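Lab channel / #folding
Pinned by the channel admin:
"Please post every new chain as: sequence first, then the structure tokens as a reply. Keep commentary short and put observations after the output so the thread stays searchable."

First post following the new format, from NK:
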Amino acid sequence: MAEDTWRFNLFAFYGNLNSQLYIDDFEAPGFYDYRTNTAMVSLGFDRKLVNNLYGGMSYTFAHSESLVEQDMGETDNTTHGIQFKITSDTRDNVYYARAGRKANFRWQTYQKWLGNVETANKITVAYNQYFSVRDDTDVVAARVYGVFGLGDITFEQQVVIGRQDIRGYSEAKYRGDGKVAIQGEYRWNFNDKMGLVGFAGLATIYGSDTTEFNGNFIQALAQDTVTGLLKRANLILDWMVLLAKMIGEFTLGLEKPFNFFLFNEIKMT
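Reply from TO:
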């Protein structure tokens, strides 16, 4: 609208999330499956401030019910949140950026006067930077991401290390009120149909029910070889084995076909 000066968005969702969490305050500590049923509606807008800088706000209603297997716990939460955000996007291509940056700042507040049982706030900061060092045949991407939960954060509002923060890590073991993650990625297209991708990441959480997880750093290191629509990793397996020996204690797993991941936890004392 008006040459992209205004952006309006309406979002509605109803569905189930099946995942797992780590519980250590019972006789049998370990991973337990849980299911969350969520209904959500969000309405908001963004306004262009200057050049590639946008500011906006939104309102979100959410009702969630979570149930952990073996009657290990259940929740029933309804939240009303107002979000304020600032976004800056200078990427040359939104699908495959080779230069530019994308930065986001969001403050979500859940006040009692909105109808919430308790007061809570979430601040999210994300910064992605892209640049090339080989005359546009490669891309270096760096990402810093932080979520800071303040106040009475509900189970459904908590964050989990994984997904975009530590790519390939899907165990959902580390869960808390907030997290900080740093990740770097290198993409080398050595011809028109073939390329290599490697990345490394580091993340930590706070506000976990498992206190020994707070402040620990989770490392991830991986590589991927891309040929057209296929992904293969057999070209540099020797390199991965050597790298694993250099890292020391690690867990090697297959997250998906032909992708190899290394994870390591550094415990802070």
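NK: Helices lie at 237-247.
TO: also worth noting, The first helix runs from residue 237 to 247.
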